[in-house]
Design a protein that fits this description.
Layout (H helix, E strand, L loop, with lengths): L2 H97 L1 H19 L13 H12 L1
Helix pairs in contact: 1-2, 2-3
Amino acid sequence: MGSFEMERMLRQNAHEKAFEIQVLAQRMFEKQKNKMVIDGRKVLKHDQDERINQLNQDLNIKKSKKINAARLRKMEERDKCLKDIKTIMLGKLVEERENNRDRYLETIKNLILQSMIKLLEPSLLIMCREEDKDDIEAMIEDLQA
């Protein structure tokens, strides 16, 4: 074997080794690239999930605020209606007191009786207007029976 053949064999061997190294390097590169892509996808997926969760929370908060605002409006409207009813009833009660005294006193008597039944107490303190005091004192015997 001549030096030329020896040199050719060494070159051939070097080329094969270089090719093997190149193939190994390409495989390692592909493997590393795939790993980085997978890790990047995981990070993106995690970020998207966090954003979706945050958006859902924000949506739920807005929804809850709207529901609470609607409840408050409803309560305010109900309160307004109750105040209106109270004003009307006070006007009717004053009118009843002045125009139909017997019916007014019968209503007072029924209210006191109802209170006595509800409270079930052995004694009861009745607070009334000064002008109704005599009429209510006259009712006490009927109410105690």
